Amino acid sequence: MSRWSFVGRTDELTRLLAAVHEGQGHGLFLSGSAGIGKSRLLREGVAALPTDRYALSFVAASTATAALPFGGLAPVLPAEQPPGLSPAGVLRWGVEVLQEQAAGRRIVLAIDDAHLLDPPSAALVHLLARAENTTVLGTLRSGEQIPLPIRALWTDDLVAHAELAPLGPRETTGLLAAILAGPVDAGSAERLFRLSAGNPLLLRELVLAAATGGELVRTYGVWRWTGRLELAPSLTDLIDTRIGQLEPGVRAVVELVAFGEPLGLRLLDQAADQADVEVAEERGLITVVPDDRRVDVRLAHPLYGEVIRRRCPVSRTRRLKAQLAERLELVGTRRRGDLLRVAVWRLDSGTAQDPALLLHAAVQAFTRYDVPLATRLARAALDADGGYDAAELLATILMFGDRPAEAIGVLDAVAGDIACEQRRSRWLTVRGMVSYWGLSDESTVDTIAAAGQSLSDPGHQARVRAFEAIMRLHGLDVDAALRLGRSVLDRPAASVAARELARSTIAHADAVRGRFRASATAIDRVQAEAANWRVDMPYLQLAMELARGTRLALSGDLAGIDAIAADEFADQAGAGDFRLGTGYLSILQAYAARLRGRGDDALKASLDACAVLATSRVFAGLAHAERAQAAVLRGDVATAVAAMAEADRTQTPGMAVLQPWLEQARGAVLVAGGDLPGATRHLCELADRLRADGFAGHEVLVLHDLVRLGQAAAPVGPTCTDGNRRTVAQRLAELSETVDGVLTPLLARHARAAAERDGAALLEVADEFAKLDLTVWAVDATAMALRGWRRDRSTSAAAAHERLAALLTRCDQIRTPALDGLRPTLSDRELEIAGLAAAGVTSRAIAGQLFLSPRTVENHLQRVYSKLGITGRGELGAALRSIPGHDGGRTR
Asked: Which intervals of the chain form a coiled coil (predicted)?
């Protein structure tokens, strides 16, 4: 574990330094709770100040020096005071000493924990703050008694005073990555942020405890917290200090809230003495917050609950939870989630006797995608003689908790309890789902198809057919999938869940075939019926998201992908450890970041997906394929090759519908490895297979990859009646008439402009790509235009250089074949001379600096102009900025 780094606080640090550099008042004091990062911010600010301009003094007040006269400033004052001075004389002496030590520089006095200053030190600080050449900086702990001379600093407008807020989610994630020397998966970062409430000290203690206890694991380079919280003694002591000694009544209030939060204020007032509730709120142990028409009570800090719950004896814990359940049952479980809370309290208190309550609560937890809680409740329902219904639910949840073998065991144990067709159809579909996707048994689809034929009820048969349809689609039998899906929609007896599962299958098939409008309409219909299928089939959400994500990715709708990532399902999946959901959404985010040219973000999101899906093989192959694509964009060939190998290893036959994405990634990896002919051959063959399968949506993107490789005129497809094969550009023109949306016509224009080497048309296409946020494609189109103009020494090259440079500022450091083809073969000396010339240095000055003759410098510059396709210095800056890795004046 690396040193605890200083991360974030950019605005606060800027304000701190501005108080010194810009003379804004006479200083700045920052208040905040313990561990919020005040001291570190103050130290970083002081360390950033040059000692040749400022006389820097840093002191840390403490309880040990608070009773000693000038104890707080002892480190900066002489050990002996002149004898016989009055109190006022001593203060003047202190000011004079610091002025002498400054030797004409501006005095900067920084005081950490200024609330602990002894009275004489506080008075001296106040006097110093009045001097024109002095800046006073300091920190204060919120809630502490502040010496009057220090408080007067801002009440008299001598210094500014600000409250230091907790770290935000992004800053917390950055801090975690810095301390662990690697990225942390989004779910773990969010949970640690929530527990620490943005307090760096508490976050540090949490991470140290998790690391010591082996609860932080690293998978594919991404750290992931298991979720098991170990509280180190230092952390427990810290929380104990904040909570303090509690009277029995106040402790009862805090314990009730710890086990029941969020707890309705009305319910708490009934369960505890109102006076004790008020005391707990006054002491900052609980907070009262309005929530719609209800007023809820929560603990003031999440870690208070962890300590309180662990310290509470088992017998009292069970009694309190039983009391909470009884109270809520008395007032009525009228609010969403109340039934779930009662079931958990009953289960934890050992008073759960109703399997129906546990079963309904498990369903509710699963509909919220809280897989661990749903598993626990469903297992309890089964143990309480919940019968077949509990077993079916438990097996389903186990499947989505990456435990398929255990799920099969649960189902087979109740096979003898199937006494009706309804149960038979449900048992067949759940067991088929577990076997097909969980255990990768391809024969499952034929097995359930045959078993489904024996069902006589049309509604029950429709449920089996809906599952068979999606399995056929995932196995690339698209025609059968569409036939089965439509037959389900044609059956009035089909349940809502069966119909919408079939509709999701059709929507996915329409997306890969390029029928984006029909796909969108179907997905909207499935979403509109969510309230009617979620209880019966909550995992249908995943099928719908796969269909929707496929459509958005194939149509280049990056804004639509952003909307999915911000949707409620994303939050629920992350909070509930629904890994298939969070993993797939991370893949989509990686895809969008890659097309925007944000290679670092793409790699992080794809690594998150790989780590989350490490124990599941449903989307694992796709995650590694996207990781390979991100690595290619960043020019990391070794990582790309390794990721592609892992994609092949983890891809399953039951997810063959995702294979086009893997094969597209393989083409990119071949190019990155230098095998352009092999990549071209592979992509042409892939395009032919996709054409034969009717996957026009995928075919379009593969053909565009060929265009970006400079292969717009390459032959693809079967031989036509004229004895020739269509070119990539011609095939894209054909597809632009049948594939929905604005993207395919734009890709066809790109192909045509590339084939005709029409620079102006390429720039027009680049502008359209940029409007869609497809920055990498805009870069490639611009690079193609520029390469032609450089070759022809066209005057149009100058404007293209400017446009390419502007596009590259929107990207990370990226590499594409088009950019590589544009990269000039300039020597280090030529780049150095060009950078100096672009920065405005004259040829004579460059010659003197590099010990060359002016003629030699000019000769080098002429060669640079020739290779860049420009005419002189006026175009040099933009031309250099259009070279990845160069800023126009200095190489990176």
From this structure: none
